[in-house]
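User: My advisor asked me to double-check a structure prediction for Two-component response regulator-like APRR5-like isoform X1 before group meeting. I don't want to rely on an old file, so could you generate it fresh from this sequence?
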Amino acid sequence: MSQVLSKSPKHCAEKQSFPISKFYKKLFFVFSSCFTIVLTFIFLIWLTLHPSKPHFSLTQADIYQLNLTRPSLLNSSIQLTFLSNNPNNRVGIYYDELQAYASYKGQQITMDTPIPPFYQGHEESNLLTVVLQGNGFPVAPSFGYEVGRDQSVGRMVLSFKVIGKLRWKVGSWVSGRYRFNVNCVSVVAFGPGAVPTSPFIGSSRGTQCSTDV
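Assistant: Sure, here is a fresh prediction for Two-component response regulator-like APRR5-like isoform X1 from the sequence you gave:
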């Protein structure tokens, strides 16, 4: 009498699942290998090109107003012109979320003013103009005294800062965002007859800036 061997549906399913699982493992290995190759290729390009940080300079700063309405409230109006340069001959730069403001002896004296985003091609330069304002901007009670002391020597030192994010562009590949800071220290001469409580007119030209990425 012959014996008939039968297998349950569960056993059949287990037998068929093995090649399917093996197929997915191979597919995952192929995709992982391709992804690793692409990342390695991008990294090698990055090492080869090694992008340099952009250069900024303050070409002109014109102060149209800088006066105290009260001992600790300041009205200000300052127009700045920056020259931005991309020193890389194979890497473009996207600038995003740009803001500029002025500070005096470590205290901010204008509102944060946005600068429109832009793209800078290889070895390209752009002029950026921004007007900084502060109407009734709160400052330290010692502001008037400090400005009066600078008046005695005929000049004052202001810092103009630009903060934002940049992205590197190599071919069609664009990097993630990197925060950067630009700091320009400018010596501004007092206009004739300027006093801490009246409108102040002054200007400065040709100031090199430092950039941190």
